[in-house]
Amino acid sequence: MNKKTLFDKIWDSHVVAEVEGGPSVLYIDRHLIHEVTSPQAFAGLDKRGIKVARPSQTFATPDHNVPTIDQHLIIRDELSRTQVEKLTENCNRHSVNLFGLGHPWQGVVHVVGPELGITLPGSTMVCGDSHTSTHGAFGAVAFGVGTSEVEMVLATQCIMQPKPKKMLIEVNGKLGKGVTSKDIVLYIISKITASGGTGYFIEFAGSAIRGLSMEARMTICNMSIESGARGGLIAPDDTTFEYVKGREFAPKGADWDKAVTYWKTLKTDEGASFDKVFSFEAEDIEPMITYGTNPGMGCKISATLPTGNDLTDNDKNTFLKSFAYMGIEPNTKMLGRKVDYVFVGSCTNGRIEDFRSFAAFVKGKQKANNVVVWLVPGSKQVEKQCIAEGIDKQLAAAGFELRQPGCSACLAMNDDKVPEGKYAVATSNRNFEGRQGPGSRTFLASPLTAAAAALTGVITDPRNFL
Amino acid sequence: MATEKFITIESSAIPLPIENVDTDQIIPARFLKATTRNGFGENLFRDWRYDKTNKKIDSFILNNSKYSGKILVGGKNFGSGSSREHAAWAIADYGFKVVVSSFFADIFKNNTLNNGLLPVQVTDNFLKKIFDAIEKDAQTKLHVDLVNQTITIKATGESEKFDINPYKKTCLINGYDDIDYLISLKDKIEAFEKKS
Question: Which helix (H) or strand (E) holds A127?
């Protein structure tokens, strides 16, 4: 029998046609859209005089541009407002499911998909956003696409894609105290670099991955793109089924039983081959933090930064440019560096477990005076859950407040911008130059490391508090 | 809808010998608020091109009149990060027809191909030769031949073959568009939906 990987099984079962010498025509089960990368695609449909092919398989929510305070008021930024209004108009015109501002299901598109049961094992999903890889946590083939590709899927529910190569990354063993899934993925990217995954689709496996909750798995798959990979996925198991069951758009009754029977077959066959394999030990992973301007430039929080002495030519220039931008000297320590801002949120770490762990960490303590802290729930449902569990009150007692859901300071398209030259510890996914606002400097880390920085005002090992 | 046809191009090139040029640098997020595809070239490499008072930064290559051309040559892992197609639109809108690097990020590569912008992936060695040739003569010409899949440094005659998916090559040469093709598969798509 032909031995297949999990990725092969899902991909192959969605191929509608093969183009000779070209990409596959891949059927897309679920299409998520947001306000920034869809208007030009809708305009393309209009130009061709066609409608969205499968509106019931298309789900929209505004997230990138939305303010995170006073969402009941009109959006002040005219261009942002236009994009959000355009999304509403386009969805209404094409009968697409829309969870607009104020809707109880609005939120960051990659938080919303899973929490509504739109994301299902064995399915194919795309969105005009690179962090679509998040949904791979359910054993789905999910990846980010450009706007021309959004238009393809709106027009035909299919996309033309070359099949990526396959990579297996195993993480085995037991995670140490204070080490989260965010640390696992930052550790992996620091090892394989920000381009090590390019051309591949990653399967994450091993006992350390298996032991993670769905939300923790999403954090890992979310950041697979930061290694350059098209996406990352994890075989579905009881943890997955448990999470999906009963959610709004998940199958119900007999359909549910049938679905689970199929989903249980979704695993890599023993002996199936990968193009590349990495294996890591959970015991080697500590709380991680990035120091440079791509997510591969990360280290253990207690480490001394590299000297760069072993680099030459462009590598060296790129390294030095990055340190100059960050205002950091090579061969120094991250611990004890002053922090001006802390951001907890985004499709990477903006879920209920992230706020639970942040709130538990700061309980009975006080926010440092020198730090501005933005706590941004990933969705209206996360916000509601925070209130239901009293997390908002716990946070308030420690000097913090919750904002309203959106992408916020992850990419600073709204007003949540880190000022020039200031340092932010962020639980989001990118530390690129200017990512959190022109001239901003980002250290990526877990919600626990963010909490430790929020309490002390400097980069602090969260294990000191545990 | 057809895109502009692409066959060969001969032009001087603009060098950007920096690695991991991500799409946030190519076009920062705050400039993604348009609802049309036009005008993004104005903000190409915005924060490298202009300071916070909107004054041109003289040291940045696009502000150096010594360099010009329709070919952009970047360091390895070009176009990483965000999937924003606005990055490809900005590069094309600025007037580039070809982007050369020793390594492209996947989504960016698809986005260029969907906009009639040709990504030419060369070896690290050849990339260095291109940078060296431009350093010697800012107006040195590169010749890109899509039919034969070659890129040549005119001054030295050195040439290298590059890969491109044969389907995408046909699309570029003829100005075909994926969506027209996919729409022509309507019956196949419907048959697929019925059986699954």
Answer: strand A124-127
Q: Are A198 and A228 in contact (CB under 8 A)?
A: yes
What b/e readout covers A239-271, taking b as 16+ CB neighbours within 10 angstroms? bbbebbeebeebbeeeeeeebbeebeebbbeee
- Give, as one character, the DSSP assignment of residue A268: P
DSSP B137: -
Q: Does B52 touch chain A (CB under 8 A)?
A: yes
A156: contact with B, CB 8 A cutoff: yes
Question: Which residue blocks in A104-180 are alpha helix, DSSP H?
Answer: 109-115, 147-156
Token readout for B35 is: 């609802």
Helix spans in A234-286 (H): 238-244, 253-263
Q: Cβ B182–A158 below 8 Å, yes or no?
A: yes
Residue A37 above 90 pLDDT? yes
Q: Please tell me if residue A148 touches chain B, with a CB cutoff of 8 Å.
A: yes
Residue A132: list chain B partners with CB under 8 A: 83
Looking at this protein, which amino acid is placed at residue B156?
Answer: T
| CA-CA-CA-CA torsion sign (B14, B100, A148, A103) | negative
**ipTM of the predicted assembly exceeds 0.85:** yes
**With bands split at pLDDT 50, 70 and 90, how would you rate the model's confidence at A313?**
confident
B3 Cβ under 8 Å from any chain A Cβ: no
- Angstrom CA distances, B40 to A211, A348, A363, A435, A448, stand at 45, 28, 47, 18, 39
Q: Are A351 and A460 in contact (CB under 8 A)?
A: no
Instruction: Give CA–CA dist B61/B39, Å, rounded.
Output: 20
* Window A:320-349, CB contacts with B under 8 Å: 321
Question: Residue A236 phi/psi, 5° resolution?
Answer: -70, 150
For residue B34, give both structure tokens. 């348009």
- Per-residue b/e over B99-137, b at no fewer than 16 CB within 10 Å? bbbbbbbbbbbbbbbbbbbbbbbbeeebbebbbebbeee
Cβ under 8 Å to A: B residues 82-111: 82-86, 88, 103-107, 110-111
Is the CB of residue B128 less than 8 Å from the CB of residue B160? Answer: no
Q: Please tell me the predicted confidence (pLDDT) of residue B177.
A: 86
| Alpha helices per DSSP H over A168-236 | 181-192, 207-210, 214-222
Helix axes A447-456, A352-362, angle to 10 degrees: 30
Q: What is the mean pLDDT of chain A?
A: 97
DSSP state of B39: S
What are the residue ranges of helices labelled H in A106-163? Answer: 109-115, 147-156
Q: In sequence order, which ranges of B51-185 are alpha helices (DSSP H)?
A: 86-94, 106-113, 124-136, 166-174, 178-183
* pLDDT at residue A1 is higher than 70: no
- Going along chain A from its start, the domains and CATH numbers come out as 6-163+238-254 (3.30.499.10), 165-236+267-284 (3.40.1060.10), 288-464 (3.30.499.10)
User: What whole-number distance in Å separates Cα of residue A65 and Cα of residue A81?
Assistant: 8
Q: Is the per-residue pLDDT at B1 higher than 80?
A: no
Interchain contact A49–B (C-beta under 8 A): no
pTM of the model: 0.97
Burial class (CB within 10 angstroms; exposed 0-12, middle 13-18, buried 19+) of A332: middle
CA distances from A4 to A168, A207, A274, B59 (A): 13, 21, 9, 52
The tokens describing A402, both together, are 């919750």
Inspect the interface and report whether the beta carbons of B84 and A146 lie closer than 8 Å: yes
Give the C-alpha separation, A63 to A109, whole Å. Answer: 7
Interchain CB contact of A31 with B (< 8 Å) = no
CB-nearest to B165 from A162, A225, A433 is: A162
